[in-house]
Design goal:
The complex is a heterodimer.
Chain A lengths: L8 E5 L4 E6 L7 E8 L6 E6 L4 E2 L4 E4 L5 E6 L8 E9 L14 E6 L1
Parallel strand pairs in A: 1-9
Antiparallel strand pairs in A: 2-7, 3-4, 3-8, 5-6, 6-7, 8-9
Chain B lengths: L4 E3 L2 E4 L5 E6 L6 E7 L5 E8 L2 E4 L8 E4 L6 E5 L8 E9 L2 E4 L3 E5 L1
Parallel strand pairs in B: 2-11
Antiparallel strand pairs in B: 1-3, 3-8, 4-5, 4-9, 5-6, 7-8, 9-10, 9-11
The chains are: A mainly beta, B mainly beta.
Amino acid sequence: DAKTTQPTSMDCAEGRAANLPCNHSTISGNEYVYWYRQIHSQGPQYIIHGLKNNETNEMASLIITEDRKSSTLILPHATLRDTAVYYCIVRSSIQGGSEKLVFGKGTKLTVNP
Amino acid sequence: NAGVMQNPRHLVRRRGQEARLRCSPMKGHSHVYWYRQLPEEGLKFMVYLQKENIIDESGMPKERFSAEFPKEGPSILRIQQVVRGDSAAYFCASSSQGRQFFGPGTRLTVL
């Protein structure tokens, strides 16, 4: 699985959009980009994933560049409860594989009042 | 639909004792993953199981650790002769359509 690079920490004002970048320059054609977050010692929570098209769900939007070498997770209206460590993970879509998630250090997002 | 359940939530053991951690996947999920998070560190994959089969145990320590997922009942992560370095949060996840759903974790403290 390709390696990802994320900033160590970011701050965001409550109510504003939080844009979390991720670099995955070695991503291959069959690899998806997944985002999870971990709120203070809880179990990680799935947010969103995508292959090459932009994706949106009730939690967030995922913007993937055309060359797929980077992506941005957007929380449109951050709240204090969005304070968490956000993990960008690249994983193969090949069926029958291990499907394990390889977590890096992630980005510690702090939403300030 | 209940989420992934883990018990106990907190477990205290003395050095040399055995620890058994249980995980019940979401209804209809037959794949289970175990991850460990040491204090102030990220999550590390340990093992991936399907019913009655270990698919990938590349993250399991070579000794004292074992996992099973029987045909009936929860998945069990077993740690024999625990040491202080085993103190960590152990998370279980089950998967559907490429997404993994995590339980609340078991926090193991070894005295």
